[in-house]
Design brief:
globular, alpha+beta, 2 helices, 114 residues
């Protein structure tokens, strides 16, 4: 795993979506792809980018996208983000989710009046 240290506080919805997408991708890597390795990378540059790469069979043997792939895409879309699932050139599967990170609007109490 790699990512910024320390990772700044993120909106709870983004943290939950990132956790669920990463969990689903790693579960699929072990349960369905026969992967022996899985790498998780996190970066933050206006959006939270989450990449999970495994060395399993990829999507070549998948006949349909399962519930897990649909749920990963839906979780990202609910936040206005994307989740792409594709084969890696070197074999295995790549799940890349981009989740927008928005600053919460300032509350009325925190505004300074002049």
């Amino acid at each position: 795993m790699s990512g910024p240290e320390p990772l700044p506080a993120l909106p709870a919805a983004v943290e939950v979506a990132a956790f669920r997408i990463a969990s689903e991708a790693m579960t699929n890597a072990v349960r369905h792809a026969g992967a022996s390795r899985c790498r998780v990378d996190v970066s933050l540059n206006g959006c939270l980018e989450l990449t999970i790469a495994d060395n399993g069979r990829g999507q070549a043997l998948a006949t349909t996208s399962g519930v897990g792939w649909t749920s990963m895409r839906e979780r990202a879309a609910e936040l206005g983000g994307t989740c792409d699932i594709s084969d890696r050139r070197e074999g295995g599967l790549l799940v890349r989710a981009v989740l927008p990170v928005e600053e919460p609007p300032a509350s009325a109490e925190s505004r300074v009046e002049r």
